[in-house]
Design goal:
The chain is mainly β. It contains six helices and 66 strands. InterPro entries: ConA-like_dom_sf, Ig-like_fold.
Length: 963
Amino acid sequence: MVSFNVARSRPFSALTAVIGTAVLMLGQLGVTGAGAASASSSAAVSSTTASSDAAPEAVALSRAKKSGAAVRVDALTTETRIVDASPDGTLTATVSSVPVRMRSGAGWSDIDLNLADDGTEVRPRMAPLDVRFGRGGDARMSTVGDRKGHSVEQSWPYGKLPAPILSGDQATYPDVLPGVDLVQIAGRDRMGQVFKVKTAAALADPRLKDLRVQLRATGAALEPHGAGGVAARGTDTGTVELSASKGAWWDSAYPDTDAADPGGPGVSHPFDLGLAAHGQGAFSTGIASAVGDPKGLSFPLYIDPDFTNSRRDYLYVDSAFPTTSYWNGQYTDGKVNLGFLPAAWDTTYGVNHSAQGFYQFDSSASLGAVILAARFNVTDVWSSSCTPTMVRAFVTYGVTPSTTWNNRPGKIQQLDAKSFANGNSASCPAATVGFDMMAAKDKLPTTGQWTVGLYADNDNWDQLTWKRFDNGATITVQYGHPPTTPKVTAVSACNTYCTSDTAAGKSGYTRTAGPVFTVSGSDVDVNDGWITAWMSVTKEGESSARWWMAAGQPIWLSPSAGSGSWGYGSTGQGTNQPLPDGHYKFSVTLVDQQGLVSGSTDYWFWVDTAPPPVPQITAPTELSTGTDGSGVVGSTSYKFTITEPAGYAVKGFVYAVTDSKSDPGAPDAAMSCNTAKNAFVMVCPNKNSTTMNVAAIDVSTTLRVWALDAAGNISSCTAAACPTGPNRSAAGSVAFSVGKTATAPTKAMNVTDSTTGAARTGMTVGFDGLSGPCATEPASTDAPEGFSFSGGYSSGTGGAAVNPSQSFTASVWACPSGTGPSTVLAQTDSSGNSQLRLGLAADGHWALTTRAGSGTETTVEGTGTATAGQWAFVNAQYDLINAQMRITVASGNSRDTWVVAAANPPSAPGPGTQVYLGKAAPGSAQSYTGLITRPVLTQAVLTAQQVQDLWTSAVGSTSQVLY
């Protein structure tokens, strides 16, 4: 008595009259029902994010090219859609407005609604819903379930049902009441019952008037549907899983009427259903009152409580019932009406009807693609005559379960117009009509849902326009994917905003007049073959390109993550001419073998080959004479001001602090603001100047500053000022001196032999620098305390020597027996983490490593590789003010140039910090073998002379110790 389907509508806002076992009661005829739960209108052409189905399409396209035959893209198959890949590199999607297939144990299978008796019950052969009909002999009518644990069973209230007669998707139970047949129908996603009332006497039968069908829900609770129907809300999900809409009835005014079709131009008429607790009595006048007693009623009469759902498929709107929604065929036989039906043809109400039809399709497969061909196909099953009339197809805004005549969707664009008439007689049998959709080819790829509306010309007066269409319309779309919008991934000699991703509305800078551009792109439809990149360079303000590609001159890219370069000296027009300084646009577009064109990428850039002049340096007042007698090496901070050259905007300044005897060379043009590399630090100006804090690193110190522009040009000097060549970089420089040095280390710190436990007091030095092979500890009356680690032991102190977060100097004489990685001198916290470590790196170079509080380590290495069995003096420093680590290594009585690295501030010492000789941490094994003497760790930046004193002192009273 009630037709249920899987409910895909939004859940209702309240649970009302929830009944576990209920009686369905037929209410009075109504024409104002709103249909399924309302949903807000949505545009059929709207922005939608593309799905990630590119990979399976590419695989299928590749297989199609190899086989020469179409290949199904299985990953894109749905209940309503199939997609085929063609050998020519295109894809074709065929989408239906209603389900045409379903998943089964064997994969996708076509829906087959033909009924069969399996000996227990009657079922359709292949249906998405779990639909089962009774075999007769008891009161069971049907069960419908969603295969997810929710179902509703219906029982006949007047004894046993007769055995059904099966025909296709219909099971007819004859004479369930005198003159009344029960016809149960299996649908694609529904099942329903139609009462075939054969005579007026049968319609008047009190049992028919008072008919109640008992409902039992499993996994759900029954409640009144807000639009005059019944809903089954899942007890586990809280949402409506199965629903039944209002009922509908029609008579046999036309000769081809049956239980599934009002026939001819016939229309159906809706009425409300009722729901009440079992045993509480009647709440409506029954079927007879629902139908009423209109004049001219023709028998048999059909009464069908139909269903609703919110699947995106089809509906029509009717001016005679302007507030009624016929979503997915509710209150109808599932056909779509169109045109004008005069009052004379409406034998029940005698009113004029104007109807328009709408179909919706899942178009997500072609989202973002290029439409090569598209066609809308629909079957005209009945026309009022064989005289053709005009029907126009439009792409429209979206429809919803609340769409009615009063809120029809707006038209967006006409697709096609056809004049036809089919289905009236043998002279013009039912036929499929196709409408070309290419008029909207640019709009259709922008949305994952297409809505097509059908409109008849003269649909407010011409009865020849009345037509009825099948609900199973289809669209066939041939499409391809254009290559991805290309990216600029590199520009030669570029310093700033060097890719299209980093530019993002800004302009890049290159310091060459002959730039070369690297671009990348790909194509989903990989079997299209290689893609071509078309590029040009145009100067701002000019209409013609300076460089461009003519026919036959593109760059070919692989369709799978291809990359290619083009520019100065490349094949093309004008590419042998350098670009004068100025602002330019580089444009690139990709084209595949189908002729599909990607989006264009425009990358703007400056050509700037002129280096900036030398910047101006202003010293602080303390150094107005170039000397600060009160200044202390490594301790006194001086604020210098750097100003960009007059009239020349720069990106930033690079500076280096060295002793007066060292030349740091030229900085790296690729440096960025507030970064450091080797001896160089880059700072960026606030407006046209900036300040920096600098400390002397020796008695005599030099500050050098270069200007760096956005193109990466470094300040340079003229040929006359730079005799070695016009391209030599030039820095502004200031030399200054200070009068004081840090206190030299004099205080001894005892160390303990970790093997023997014997104490070794401060190590006295006072002999010439060691050189040559070292087979034994140095023999000298001034240096009796050498430490040999060849015996397998190490030494440690009773506490910290320095605060590593402040400036310090670490040095040692060492003669390693090998050049593998090892630690000679370390200060380690209580967790075993080295705060500082002096020793041999993995490459055999002497190195100082510091550790920041974050755990990040910074290392500076000497330039040469240590020599096994050879004495070397290693001296390293951390300079807090200049943010530098420096190291120098000497063998003999001469010192190498400092090697400098930018440094992160090391962490301060905590409780339990100790100094270790010969190993990195308290729990680590001895890592150094060889000889060491006179290790020094002092909280100061020592000058070159002080360092010299450490290794050439002949004063026996000078004591150098761990400090």
